[in-house]
Amino acid sequence: MRFILLASVYLSSIFSTFAQQIVPVAPLPSPKQIRWQALEYYGFIHFNMNTFTNVEWGEGKESPSNFNPSALDCRQWARIAKAAGMKGLIVTAKHHDGFALYPSKFTTHSVAKSPWKNGKGDVVKELALACKEYGLKLGIYLSPWDRFHPAYGTDEYNKIYAEMQKELLTQYGPIFEFWYDGANGEGPNGKKQVYDWPLFHAMVNKYQPNAVQFSDNGPDIRWVGNERGYNYETSWSPINRDEIYPGYPQFDRYRHGQENGTHWVAPEVDVSIRPGWYYHPKEDNRVKSPDSLMKIYVASVGRNSNLLLNIPVDTRGLIHPNDSASMMGFAELRKKSLINLLQPSSTKIQVSSTFNATYSVKYLSDKDPSSAWAPQVSDAQPSMVITLDHAVHSNTLQLQEPIALGQRIKAFSVEIASENGEKWLIKAKTIGNKRMLTFPERKVKQIRIILEEYRAQPLISNLALYRIISTRNESLFR
């Protein structure tokens, strides 16, 4: 009888605890999608035949003899990327012209036919080794479009592309992201290809199950909808994935995601540090400044996206000094700017209600994206009030949701009060993984955040207040 009584008490305790947990709201991200989102910032390496022909899109008629970098050094790429704070590098293993940066057995148009290293070179291998040395993740871009391959436009080509995938997925170690391109034009025979996307996706899932796959509709992460370096003010990670496909002509209808989307497919912002994606000497003095990159970071990572910054490697096979200098300046700005001004010793956070101890107000400042504060279910417009002991110059408020439980916030407002009592109101929409809300610099004494609309019981995992500055140590948001 004593055993039965103790067991009943134990089970009752378990069910009581479970009953007080907040129910996830679908769709939910997979573990690999959550790991990918945590990377936030990584690099794109556009280096291929186009580098040597000085074009953006090759035609597939180029001679492999054109590819002959004089000082290729993937360790330099990785060293600069690491110093810039990037978490990985994605390389263009094959662009639309069909030239492969590795000695594939399934095409005759590759480095194996080039004079570089007498046809014995393998750029992907060298980059994989460099990434491993510098603690970076390796990603692969493999364009399905091929303007060289004679089988393009036939059913056989899908099998050939899948075999090339297998080579890249099995010979170079772990891959964190596989990047498809939505471009789909004619091949050398004048035909277009009907891509076998289920086959392509299955290859990655089979050989690199921890890798996320990128395209207009995922299946794991999606294009943001522009190449200018920003996500939109409203950004839902859920999307109606099965309604669209790579190259979908009406993609603008889906660029914000969908509040009640069927699948979790968070956006990635891809943008080049130069006007073009490939290296062109005439653009050496048109590299984006550190200030511009900082604004891009806020408008991408700060709007529920990851940032994929492209670096066009030059004809030597090196990152140009102008690009490197800008990347280092950007890293320095982040170091100086992203210092949370909401320190526990000088900040008080009050909330309108608390669901229970598991979702306490203390989790708003613990820096853990998986913990969170939650209000009572009956709290119709939950609020947080942040009061600082001393007013601080600031221009950016950051909020996060614990995305493992789904994306919830539809609209919120922020009331900022200065030390003399003057107030400003900001209206905003979604939050997601991270939302950086910028405003003209103020000497802020108090901030009130009101969660006005939400899909399910709201959750906030972290708050931060920043003063984001320019290279001149001035406010970047005026």
Automatic annotation (TrEMBL):
Taxonomy, superkingdom: Bacteria
Pfam families assigned to the protein according to its UniProt record, in alphabetical order: Alpha_L_fucos (PF01120), F5_F8_type_C (PF00754)
Family annotation (SMART domains): Alpha_L_fucos
GO terms, molecular function: hydrolase activity
Boundaries of every Glycoside hydrolase family 29 N-terminal domain copy: 61-327
Signal sequence region: 1-19
Hydrolase among keywords: yes
Function text: Alpha-L-fucosidase is responsible for hydrolyzing the alpha-1,6-linked fucose joined to the reducing-end N-acetylglucosamine of the carbohydrate moieties of glycoproteins.
Family statement drawn from the similarity comment of this UniProt entry: Belongs to the glycosyl hydrolase 29 family.
Protein known as: alpha-L-fucosidase
Biological source species: Aquirufa beregesia
